[in-house]
Amino acid sequence: MCGAETPALAEAAVAAGADLVELGFPFSDPLADGPVIRRAAERALAQGMRTGACLECLAATRERVECQLVPMTYSSLLEAYGWERFAADAEAAGATSLIVADLPAGERPGLRRVQLVAPSSTDERLRLAAGQTDGWLYLVTVIGTIGARSDLSPALAGLVERSRSATDLPLYAGFGISTPVHARAAAELVDGIVVGSRAVEVAEEGPAALSRYVATLRRALDA
Hints:
This protein is an alpha/beta fold. The protein has one domain (6-222): Aldolase class I (TIM Barrel), CATH 3.20.20. It has helices at 6-15, 35-46, 51-62, 75-81, 83-93, 123-132, 156-166, 180-187, 197-203, 207-222; strands spanning 20-24, 68-73, 99-100, 116-117, 137-140, 171-174, 192-194. Strand 4 (116-117), helix 6 and strand 5 form a beta-alpha-beta unit. The protein starts with 5 loop residues before the first helix and ends with a helix.
């Protein structure tokens, strides 16, 4: 989540093996997020992290890391700020793409962004998302809000199979992945993982803690 500590946290994560950093732009009603990220968003908003401040945070983070930086937010924020204006300002600040959690594939086709698909996505919807996604396809492993879970979703394998038939682009799995065991199991199926809630929790302990956590995931993926 964007905040004063974000550049240092991103630098620590990348040094420990992260290939991509997703920066949450806080929104007051984050429908896809579980309690951990909701609380982080509330704290960020209380600290004044509105869209302009988040873009400044993105630019400051870009000064510290060279990896992919992907803002994640909701369509209401872009509607208020201006769709084209946000896309241009985010790119100027160092974003390599964008995730809009509640914007379905097919809407705003001119907005370059990473598309999300879920086990509930129809084959038609999956093909549409795969055809419009920017660089990689985000596989939501479970239906519902984001959050740490005890086991990797059994629905992932079927979603991967359907996605592979729709695109040759890399597949990254997220939502419900939080442990090295999850990471290793997911790595048997997909090209990368996205960790949200658990990373946000660990980040509250500071860059060193986040670095140690990311390193455990990196080792699991590379095993």
